[in-house]
Amino acid sequence: MTSINEMKIKQNINHLIQNYGIQLLNYMSDCEREEKALLSAFDKVDDQIIKASLELLKQNNLINIRTEEIMPPNIYYHLTKDGELILQMIYKFESLNFE
Q: Which domains does the chain have, with CATH numbers?
């Protein structure tokens, strides 16, 4: 049996929660989103925090970026298959009741 590092799982989930990762994944759940739309949807959060969170999601293969090469460029974000799987797991965790 493969061992599971529960502490690492907890750290990763907490990081997703604290850095708006779950909200960003959820916002992209139904379609590709333009960066401007993402930033305005999270208008109470500093743009640099959202951009850093998007970069972390990309580094972890949860989202992809598409750029339209115009001036200024339009930047679009969408979920990868891994991002879709993680989001489905989050929805499942949300529906559980261990109380």
A: 31-99 (1.10.10.10)
Nearest-angstrom CA–CA distance, 88 and 41: 22
Q: How far apart are CA 53 and CA 20, in angstroms?
A: 7
**pLDDT computed for residue 2 by the predictor:** 83
Please identify which residue in the block is written with the tokens 């001036």.
Answer: 71
pLDDT at 37 over 90: yes
Signed CA dihedral, 51, 55, 57, 62: sign only: positive
Amino acid at 85: L
Which amino acid, residue 51?
K
- Residue 56 tokens read as 């972390």
